[in-house]
Design brief:
Radius of gyration: 19 Å
Largest sheet: none
Order of helices and strands: HHHHHHHHHHHHHH
Number of domains: 1
Strand content: under 5%
Shape: globular
Structural class: mainly alpha
Amino acid sequence: MNSRTKGYICGIVSAVCYGTNPLGANFLYAEGMNVPSVLFSRFALAAVIIGVLMAAHRDSFRITLREAGLLALLGVLFAMSSLSLFFSFQFMDAGIASTLLFVYPLMVAVIMALFFKQPLTWRMGTAIALALGGIALLYRGGDGAPLSAIGVTLVFVSSLTYALYIVVVNRSGMKMPVLKMTFYVILTVVATVAVYGLTVPGEGLMMPPTPFAWGMSAMLAVVPSVMALILLTVAVKEIGSTPTSILGALEPLTAVVIGITVFGEAFTGRLAIGILLILAGVTYAVTPSRRSRRGDVKKA
């Protein structure tokens, strides 16, 4: 498997893993947990898992001062993205929030074009347009009720901070094992969420109250945290920020599938067309152009 193929596979699986966020969040809210508590238990368990894996492999935990600064920045960005997204679930349907979150690939492309002179190709632009068209169809607000302004703002903040996270990973130039990088990012997230939960009036932190809540917290720790972050980091390093962010179209797609299979939501023709457009956009983004294929043949 070449690095390009590896990067695309990691990006796809990471997006699907991250798309399971609403499943665990909604169940834990029903158990009486607030947003900081859900995120604290999730990321604390994730940090323990990765720390054990690093210790088992006898990996070094040592980092430089520069690396500590970059890792702290990444952790704060990811914490802000997670907090704002999970808060948005309280103002709108989680599937809709996950759908609106997908504006972040466009943000990544714009940031890379404006600040790092990375050209936005027609191929990437077309892929984004196809995926955004599919995302628009996945929104099922057929009752005509306006979306919550607070909810939309929170999702926008989540999208922007997640886009910045991807860009920083891509441009940081850190030569660090993925497992170690993910460990310190998650550790910073735990600290950020703890500070928020303990200092903001009316919030607070609580442990999962039931075995089922512990199970959901463990799922959130493993699937949309450990697996998603590790695979995301690999994907960004192998294929770059913009292609990885476009693969994120599979996140809201996953949320829709969960809604249909777990919560019994209807599967309509509109949803089918939206899913096909998303898959078309993702496929177009990851399929090498004729020029790149000719280049690969010449290199071979």
